[in-house]
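Re: the request from the purification team.
They wanted to know what the chain is likely to look like in 3D before they choose a buffer screen. I agreed to run a prediction and write the result into the notebook, where they can find it.
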Amino acid sequence: MNKTTLFHKLVAFTTSVHRVTHELTKDAKADHITSVQYNILELIAVSQPVTPSQISDCQHLSLPNTSRELKKLREKNLIEKVGDPEDGRKQHIRLTKEGEQMMDKSFQLIETRFLNRIQNASKEDLDEIDQAIDILQRKLFY
């Protein structure tokens, strides 16, 4: 396959991923946090612990904006900072119990929507989806 054609398929695929992600996560966040804060919490939930720099880079936020949002999330008792034992200057961010409970609730809603979306998939379809995700993760999204 031509690499340019493959690239165009990737662009179409990632656009579809963003659309489906929006459909699955719509209204999944708690009312007392912003969409930016939800996205930060979601990243922390699946990758914790993370550094403020990693959050900034992944969420396309400046480091000052990231720090401001992290401060707001700390004030809401949803995250905590933990010092790096090997480098005292480095901070790691992880969810508090309250943050974990809130994200678990969001993920339950997202899972329900996902299961609804694949409810008519055959076992073979589910196996193919599973393999496709594994391949994409290993070969492209590492």
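For the purification team: The first strand starts at residue 79 and ends at 83.
Please add any questions underneath this entry.
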